[in-house]
Amino acid sequence: MIIVTNNPIVKSQITDKEIVHKDITYIEVLKECRDLVHKGYEILSHPLYGSVKPNETPYRSIIMKKGTNLDTNSLNLIEEAIVTSSKFQNNKKTPNWPNKVIEDFRVIDLDILQNTLQRIQYL
Question: Which NCBIfam families does this one have (predicted)?
């Protein structure tokens, strides 16, 4: 299992999983996951989880696992997420939030990620 993220606190808080952390945009995280899907990875967490819109938060963390073949369900899911996120960004760009709000978005992303990891472990 790996986690692809642009959230810097994920790397420091989740120490028992492989973390692919890059200083990239929300949509670039989705594209990074799409590239991994093409290499045989499967998406385990929905790329648009949570109630925060893709143009509101700058952070996204996605759980994936190495598969054996191209998983068309994962490919469709990530492609749709890229299209949806791009539409949101085209309608209204992510604001230049103050540091306090940025920190809140980091914590929200981490919290959702941790809850998702707990649910996945019980599957």
Answer: GrdX
Alpha-carbon gap, residue 96 to 113, rounded angstroms: 24
Closest CA to 3 of 104, 82, 117, 108: 117
Q: Count of CB atoms within 10 A of residue 15's CB?
A: 7
Residue bearing tokens 């190495």? 66
- Give the pLDDT confidence of 59-113 residue by residue, as tens digits: 999 999 999 899 999 999 999 999 999 999 999 989 999 999 999 999 999 999 9
Which of 49, 73, 77 has the alpha carbon at shortest distance from 61?
A: 49
Does the global pTM surpass 0.85?
A: yes
HEC letters along 7-33:
CHHHHHHCCCCEEEECCCCHHHHHHHH
CB distance 94 to 58 below 8 Å:
yes
pLDDT tens digits, 7-37: 999 999 999 999 999 999 999 999 999 999 9
Q: Say how far apart CA 86 and CA 79 lie, in whole Å.
A: 11
